[in-house]
Design goal:
Function: Produces ATP from ADP in the presence of a proton gradient across the membrane.
GO molecular function, one term: ATP binding
Shape: rod-shaped
Family: Belongs to the V-ATPase E subunit family.
Helix content: over 70%
GO cellular component, one term: proton-transporting two-sector ATPase complex, catalytic domain
GO biological process, one term: proton motive force-driven plasma membrane ATP synthesis
Mean pLDDT: 83
Largest sheet: 4 strands, mixed
Number of strands: 4
Low-confidence stretches: none
Distance between the termini: 115 Å
Strand content: 5-15%
Structural class: alpha+beta
Strand order of the largest sheet: 2-1-3-4
Radius of gyration: 47 Å
């Protein structure tokens, strides 16, 4: 083999060796890049998974809170409906008391609301027609005990039950509905405690 062939053979061997080293280094670099990319992808996937789990937990918490609030609102609405029904039945019961019990109640209302002034008391047509004998005397006695006087109006008023007191052109509403309305909150609280503890 000539010197030239030897030289060419050595250059080819060195080139081949150099190419193998370059390829080995490139493969090692590629593996390192792939490993780093894989680790980064795993870390990113873990972050995404963690965030998704947190979002799911937050959503579940909000959904549970919302469901609890809707349950409480429905419960409150049901209680208010029951209380309203009870108060409506109580009102109907008062309006349908027998005549003596009804006018005894009106007598107590008059004792509470009569003023020490001269005035007039007005009833519904129904109450004027069924007023017990001697009730006008009780009206006068109660008014006198308060230092005033009341005359019975012959004119019926469009009220359900109870009466109106008129002093100097100013009316005081003492109807059964007005009494119920003025004490609605107190009565609602009592019914709530009785029914729901």
């Amino acid at each position: 083999m000539s010197g030239l062939d030897k030289m060419r053979s050595r250059i080819l061997e060195e080139a081949e060796q150099s190419a193998k080293e370059i390829i080995a280094k490139a493969e090692a670099d590629a593996r390192a890049v792939m490993k780093a990319a894989e680790e980064e992808a795993c870390a990113e996937a873990a972050k995404i998974r963690e965030k998704a789990e947190q979002n799911a937990a937050d959503y579940a918490g909000r959904a549970a809170s919302s469901a609890d609030m809707r349950r409480k609102q429905a419960n409150l609405a049901a209680k208010q409906e029951v209380i309203s029904t009870v108060l409506g039945k109580a009102y109907d019961t008062v309006m349908n008391l027998d005549v003596n019990a009804y006018f005894d109640l009106l007598e107590k209302l008059l004792e509470e609301h009569a003023l020490p002034e001269k005035g007039e008391i007005c009833f519904s047509q129904r109450d004027l027609e069924r007023m017990p004998e001697g009730f006008t005397g009780k009206i006068k006695t109660i008014a006198a005990a308060k230092g005033g006087s009341l005359t019975l109006s012959d004119e019926a008023r469009p009220i359900g039950g109870g009466f109106l007191l008129v002093y100097g052109g100013i009316e005081e509403n003492c109807t059964i509905k007005a009494v119920f309305d003025s004490k609605r909150e107190e009565l609602s609280d009592r019914v709530n405690r009785l029914l729901f503890g």
